[in-house]
Design goal:
This protein has eight helices and no strands. The protein has helices at 16-37, 47-51, 56-63, 67-85, 90-114, 121-138, 148-158, 160-176.
């Protein structure tokens, strides 16, 4: 109870602990793409689209039982990256926010229902991808008027190495840093 008689209780989500979690996860969501882009590859390799580094921090947040913080990071990370680096573009950041939020929600739901399994990021990625395809179908300008089928197929196939990384991260957390209960 607050010492001030008219003070309202602070909502449970707006705690110092949650702010710390969000801050750490946001820092990781900037660090992982930065580190991936330091790998020397040809300019057209697009490692971010292949290795999905922006997914790592929200995935780790959910695996460690911090689903709400991970959801906040899922929405903010693409935009924070855009503010600092001008990448991804605003249309891509919109799609990524939707995809990351659907991905995060699905991982959290699966973790709560079946526990931590090595494969939970795979259906979560598919659901996140489906959400972006629906959004792109509704607003074609988000994919710069490209063919929806071409855009969806290309971006999904390019992400296969990143899916392997997401599975590897899940296995590493499962083995070396088991999460707290969901």
């Amino acid at each position: 109870m607050s010492a001030h008689p008219t003070a309202r209780p602070t909502p449970g989500f707006l705690t110092l602990s949650t702010a710390r979690e969000v801050g750490i996860l946001l820092a990781l969501s900037l660090l992982f793409p930065f580190l991936i882009h330091l790998i020397p590859v040809p300019e057209d390799a697009r490692l971010g689209q292949r290795l999905l580094p922006i997914f790592y921090a929200p995935l780790l947040g959910v695996l460690w039982g911090r689903s709400r913080s991970a959801a906040v990071v899922a929405v903010l990370a693409p935009w924070l990256n855009w503010l600092l680096t001008q990448h991804p573009s605003p249309p891509s950041a919109t799609l990524m926010s939707v995809e990351l939020l659907a991905f995060t929600f699905t991982v959290a739901t699966l973790r709560a229902r079946v526990g931590l399994r090595w494969w939970i990021s795979l259906p979560a990625y598919v659901i996140g991808r489906a959400a972006t395809i629906i959004l792109a179908a509704l607003i074609p300008a988000l994919i710069h008027q490209r063919s929806l089928l071409d855009w969806a197929a290309t971006s999904t196939v390019q992400a296969f190495p990143g899916l392997a990384v997401l599975v590897l991260l899940t296995l590493l957390v499962q083995r070396f840093y088991p999460p707290t209960p969901a």
